[in-house]
Amino acid sequence: MTLTDFCRNGRQILHKLEYQDTLRVVPYLLASLVAAGTSLLYSQAFFFGEEVALHAVEHFHWALSLSITLSMIYLSWYLPYRFAKQAGGSGIPQMLIANELDPASDKPLIRSLIGIRTITMKIIASIACVLGGGAVGQEGPTLQIASGLFYRIGEKSTKWIQQVSMRSFILAGGASGLAAAFNTPLGGIAYALEELSKDYFNNFKTYVIWSVIATGLIVQTVQGSYLYIGFPSLESISWETYMWVIVTSAITGILGASFGSVLFSVHQKRKSIQSFTRLSLLNLACGFLFWLGITFISNHGIGGGKMLILDLLFRDGSATAQDILVRIGGPLLMAIAGAAGGLFAPSLTIGAVMGSFMAQIVWPHNHHLLIMTSMISFLSGFMQTPFTAFILIFEMTDRHSALFPMMLSSAIAVGTSRIFHKKSFYDLVKEDFLHQHKKTAK
């Protein structure tokens, strides 16, 4: 057999296999490997940045600390503004918009949202923000980064595998990004079902599940089978506890939705500002106000807030009114400043400090449970994804005994929040972008 015959036979075999699921799943597994490795490195760099920022606030001279905060938060806005505008913000709206666009006719726009240039700048800008102490998380950017990597590998795979949907790569990437960020594979699948897929998940569920499994295996192999939050101790759950879960969940759910509404208003106001000078001054003013907050009110406003959650759940910490102020004010100031960074973790932290604060007043008997359910309810109100919210916290804590209060809190939060706010912040941003895109295309 000649080399030509061998190659021809090889192509014939590949031609017979290329329409089989076995071959089509290969690029998803390859993308999972790349996304998992990138997510691990990004996460380590991000949390190291939080530690550096906390050290700077606690030990550096105030002038040096202020300079670092102002310069890093400014860079977090300027780098996306100058080099890749869609690298700003949280990252989840960009992924959701890319998922809605037509992969054939909107390829340049999709690349601007989740292309390699954009996700590279997202990594740099968000780490810069957290080095300055910015109240942002790494979870939203991880979803944008993972979906971008999946999309790019999907583009390459269409050269040798036919009948591959580019939307399925974006969908699988977003789900894998969430699974990697929180080490919650079920949460990733739940998010794909509830937020990303809507109508067409059934066509791509196999690839999503394989992508999440592969990413989860890689992350757990490197970092171990850990719980993102841990295994908090809970008291017995009585009927009185259920009553306070309902009350606090309704309050935090409404506040979560209201928080999203305010963020969208900020988003709209920033769009109306075209002047580079005004945007620069606005960023510096927000950076200065933020530095005042973390320096003179509470340094618990630094970063995404994971360490504060751990303190509340495992070190007998209790949230104060100052903690609530900096945890709500920080992400709002970052949004006004146009800094790059996620809202996922900051939302969980706002829920945690609210739950802790309310528990001290109404029901200290089960302090930890109210913290957990308030995290779920605030996130449910903010994102309007109740199933994802309680699955995430359930996986992060592995508290089977609290499953029913968790489910109840998410249902109550969404039910009450939708009385006042029908759509989440992410949906509002996505719809606004798509509306402007259609107007421009006409």
Automatic annotation (TrEMBL):
GO terms for molecular function: voltage-gated chloride channel activity. This is Chloride channel protein. It is found in: Membrane. Signal peptide: none annotated. The keyword Cytoplasm does not apply. It is a multi-pass membrane protein. The keyword Kinase does not apply. Keywords: Chloride, Ion transport, Membrane, Transmembrane, Transmembrane helix, Transport. Its main location: membrane. The chain crosses the membrane at residues 25-48, 60-79, 207-229, 241-264, 276-297, 332-357, 369-394, 400-420. GO terms for cellular component: plasma membrane. The gene is eriC. CDD domains: EriC_like (cd01034).
